[in-house]
């Protein structure tokens, strides 16, 4: 029952959603502010990634972890989920193991794009609208 959102009251779920979501936003903003320090790219990559993880975790409180995992890996968002999680991991690998600042920055940009595409999958017809917009701009 711990993995089911219904074990928490609605008020508690909303409160923890807000806490995690705000923590995610604060981490992302803090990471951006730290970007200008001497080792700022590493701090940016870490805080930006932690911010995205916290934002993802926040929705666990609304729907529960098992339901979130099921929806994350539904066919319509499977590729977006895998790509998003891949760039979260690759960002941290670039910072901690490979020590490649430029690669970490590139992975943060790709992480942002992947998170955006993943998030759009929850809004009906949003992906179609984005695709139409880009094709009309390019075409």
Automatic annotation (TrEMBL):
Protein keywords: Membrane, Protein transport, Transmembrane, Transmembrane helix, Transport
Record protein name field: Vesicle transport protein
GO biological-process terms attached to the record: protein transport; vesicle-mediated transport
Family indicated by similarity: Belongs to the SFT2 family.
Compartments reported by the entry: Membrane
Membrane topology: Multi-pass membrane protein
Record keyword RNA-binding present: no
Organism: Anseranas semipalmata (Magpie goose)
Main subcellular location: membrane
Database matches in InterPro entries: Vesicle_transpt_Got1/SFT2 (IPR007305), Vesicle_transpt_SFT2 (IPR011691)
Function in brief: May be involved in fusion of retrograde transport vesicles derived from an endocytic compartment with the Golgi complex.
Membrane spanning stretches: 16-37, 43-66, 78-98, 104-125
Name of the encoding gene: Sft2d1
GO cellular component term of the entry, any: cytoplasm
């Amino acid at each position: 029952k711990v993995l089911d959102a219904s074990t928490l009251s609605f008020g508690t779920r909303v409160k923890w959603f807000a806490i995690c979501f705000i923590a995610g936003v604060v981490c992302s903003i803090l990471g951006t502010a730290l970007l200008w320090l001497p080792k700022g790219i590493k701090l940016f990559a870490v805080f930006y990634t932690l911010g995205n993880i916290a934002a993802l975790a926040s929705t666990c409180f609304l729907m529960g972890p098992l339901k979130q995992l099921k929806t994350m890996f539904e066919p319509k968002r499977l590729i977006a989920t895998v790509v998003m999680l891949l760039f979260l991991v690759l960002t941290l690998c670039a910072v901690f193991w490979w020590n490649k600042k430029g690669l970490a920055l590139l992975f943060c940009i790709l992480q942002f794009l992947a998170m955006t595409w993943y998030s759009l999958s929850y809004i009906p017809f949003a992906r179609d609208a984005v695709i139409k917009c880009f094709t009309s701009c390019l075409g």
